[in-house]
Specification:
The protein has three domains: 127 residues, Rossmann fold, CATH 3.40.50.620; 121 residues, Serine Threonine Protein Phosphatase 5, Tetratricopeptide repeat (Alpha Horseshoe), CATH 1.25.40; 168 residues, DNA Cyclobutane Dipyrimidine Photolyase, subunit A, domain 3, CATH 1.10.579.10. Helices cover 51% and strands 6% of the residues. The protein has 22 helices and five strands. A five-stranded parallel beta sheet has the order 3-2-1-4-5, sandwiched between helices. α16 packs antiparallel against α17. The protein starts with a strand and ends with a helix. Bound molecules: flavin-adenine dinucleotide (FAD). One of its GO terms (biological process) is response to light stimulus. This is Deoxyribodipyrimidine photo-lyase.
Length: 474
């Protein structure tokens, strides 16, 4: 009997738990992906992200062909399409991997019910995390952690699963079988343009499993050993740039973990090992935010701290526009926003700087920034993005200390030669480094380069923010 494996955020064939289980059930396995129109119709779709995802789908389709099988691509509403296709193909069971997002949880439950009504089983697995929600709970009262550090300690101690079993040859569907599902919404793989998005710039990571694995190996053979320090400098390629692959599950998390353990074995230096552990901590941040989203779905729609609902934001539209376009007159902020707009990716240090600037200097609701990031980021992910924004806005679970970044000290420390600023804000690239990193560009010089004066005063805004913050705390 045949089975369906429904791909969502696991666009790969290797180290895929649900897919591996489906294969153990039957080698007459067909892969299915549904371009969910509800998701495509939202106004937070990023052209770079769609482009990357479609590239990964093409790669996945080829992987299926190499195994002798098929990946069928549909467009529409999965709660209707999955049960209809399962019915038409007369499969025993539909397999997939779970997701933590509130939307996906609801959708998946609807699919389970619709399958049940037709007498078809469903089997779901946790695949994208090393530890599923509920596996890491506080010792004192078996509750989800709300603070990262104790979560990390307990997460690290838990045993991690091995790489999932590889697939063998697949048995393909017959022409006749495929014909039965042809009118249920099957499409040829579209381009981003077909879907109404255009993206011409190079992507930070090539789509597909092979590219993600190569990047993982490259990172774990070299950059990981200096990660702790190098990751802070946006002008240096010191991080893995694997975030799009993590977002779409183009690389298996157990494989990633194994790669870090191998890097650990390949060195005897305590310092190098500390660097590896720092990267492992980032993997744990990703898991932490996903666990938080799973247990506290209300995070997706508002501040975790209720008192923040009354915070008096300025929400100045012009300031927001200037921030989006990288025209605030703060060189490090502008550089970062232009990197985002031009490449669909932004360095983590800069994500923290611009998020702090939007919320604490422009006093604009963090949700505006969260949405703008989703509209641009190749790795835009509800849990990580929301986690990052609530952390920066101090509206999240762990608001202490009150985080206010000073753009000038950040640039002085992390872009000391102004390399990153020069790259992304070319109109000021010939000015003295001192001007670039302090942001104190004499008005005449700024004017002759066509660069703006700062749209707000950091010191004054910081005082203002603290005043308003005090009011909600009382
Ligand atoms: P590396 O430094 O190589 O880290 C490895 C992986 O660990 C990343 O690919 C990512 O999957 C995970 N990771 C690292 N840092 C974090 C973190 N703070 N939170 C969660 N996961 C992390 N990351 C996203 O993947 N999607 C987002 O939409 C996103 N939005 C963010 C918004 C804000 C305001 C902030 C402050 C951070 C955000 N991050 C987001 C986290 C982080 O900036 C990116 O994961 C990282 O810059 C990606 O680059 P990298 O792959 O080279 O990371």
């Amino acid at each position: 009997n045949s089975v369906i494996f429904w791909h969502r955020r696991d666009l790969r064939v290797s180290d895929n738990i649900g897919l591996s289980k489906a294969y153990q059930h039957s080698s007459k396995l067909v892969g299915l992906f549904c371009l969910d129109t509800d998701i495509l119709n939202q106004d937070n779709v990023a052209p770079a992200r769609i482009t990357y995802m479609l590239g990964c789908l093409q790669d996945l389709r080829e992987s299926y062909q190499q195994l002798g099988g098929q990946l069928l691509i549909f467009q529409g509403n999965p709660t209707q399409i999955i049960p209809q296709v399962a019915d038409a193909l007369k499969v025993d069971c539909v397999f997939w991997n779970n997701d933590v997002e509130p939307y996906s949880k609801k959708r998946d439950n609807q699919v389970i019910e619709a399958l049940q009504e037709r007498g078809i089983h469903s089997q779901t697995y946790w695949d994208q995390l090393l530890h599923a929600p509920g596996d890491i709970l506080t010792k004192s009262n078996n509750a989800p952690y709300k603070v990262y550090t104790p979560f990390w300690r307990s997460w690290l101690k838990e045993e991690k699963a091995n790489i999932a079993q590889a697939l063998g040859k697949l048995e393909s569907l017959s022409e006749e079988e495929i014909n039965t599902v042809k009118n249920l919404g099957i499409i040829d793989l579209p381009t981003a343009k077909d879907l109404g998005y255009s993206w011409d710039a190079p992507l930070i990571l090539e789509p597909g499993e092979t590219a993600a694995k190569e990047q993982l190996n490259y990172f774990c053979d070299s950059l990981i050993y200096n990660y702790q320090e190098q990751r802070n400098y946006p002008g240096i390629n010191g991080t893995s740039t694997l975030s799009p692959a993590f977002k779409f599950g183009v690389i298996g998390i157990r494989e990633v973990w194994q790669a870090t353990l191998s890097a650990y074995e390949n060195t005897y230096s305590d310092e190098a090992r500390e660097n590896i552990q720092t990267w492992q901590q980032e993997i744990a941040w990703r898991e932490f935010y996903q666990h938080c989203m799973y247990f506290f779905p209300e995070l997706a729609t508002g501040p975790y701290r209720q008192e923040f609902k009354d915070f008096s934001w300025d929400n100045n539209e012009q300031h927001f526009q200037a921030w989006c376009e990288g025209k605030t007159g703060y060189p490090i902020v502008d550089a970062a926003m232009r990197q985002l707009n031009e490449t669909g990716w932004m360095h983590n240090r800069c994500r923290m700087i611009v998020a702090s600037f939007l919320t604490k200097d422009l006093i604009i609701n963090w949700q505006w920034g969260e949405k703008y990031f989703m509209q641009k980021l190749i790795d835009g992910d509800l849990s990580a993005n929301n986690g990052g924004w609530q952390w920066s806005a101090s509206s999240g679970m762990d608001p202490k200390p009150l985080r206010i970044f000073n753009p000038a000290s950040q640039a002085q420390k992390y872009d000391p030669d102004g390399e990153y600023i020069r790259l992304w804000v070319p109109e000021i690239s010939s000015l003295d480094t001192e001007y670039l990193v302090t942001g104190k560009i004499p008005p005449l010089e700024a004017h002759s380069c066509g660069y703006l004066q700062p749209i707000v005063d950091h010191k004054q805004q910081q005082r203002e923010f603290k005043e308003r913050y005090k009011q909600i705390k009382n």
